[in-house]
Amino acid sequence: VQLVESGGGLMQPGGSLRLSCAACGFMFDDSTMSWLRQAPGKDLEWVSGITRSGGGTYYTEPVRGRFTISRDNAKNTLYLQMNLLRPEDTAVYYCSQGGLLKSSATYHRGQGTQVTVSP
């Protein structure tokens, strides 16, 4: 299993970033997927999950209405569109197999991509 995140960077508050996660080594279209994040000095936090088909999406409350999770099963790729970024969104973002809901198990995680939101 390999999950490779990209798209992170430095952004001013109010800006947007789109994260991507290229997946291989497992049946991507048969897996729920999720995004997690870890801010400096804090625990790993579940951010969002998506069903196998992409028809169902779930978000943690602080990002609801600002972030959009999506997937392209033909490309084995998971996305996270992040709008109206806030300094508190600063974290390393990871994509994960599993983790549809906050309480769901996750099985594999990528190496992460850094997102920094600062003036």
Describe this structure in words.
It is a single chain. The chain has strands at 2-6, 9-11, 17-24, 33-38, 44-50, 57-59, 67-72, 77-82, 91-98, 106-109, 113-117. The protein is mainly beta.
The fraction of residues in strands falls at: over 45%
Class by alpha and beta content = mainly beta
User: In whole angstroms, how far apart are the ends?
Assistant: 37 Å
Helix run count: 0
Report the oligomer: single chain
Report on the biggest sheet: 7 strands, mixed
Order of helices and strands: EEEEEEEEEEE
Low-confidence stretches: none
Mean pLDDT: 97
Tally of strands:
11
Brief rundown of the structure:
The protein is mostly beta strands and 119 residues long.
Brief descriptors of the model:
119 residues; mainly beta; globular; 7-stranded mixed sheet; 4-stranded antiparallel sheet; single chain; 11 strands
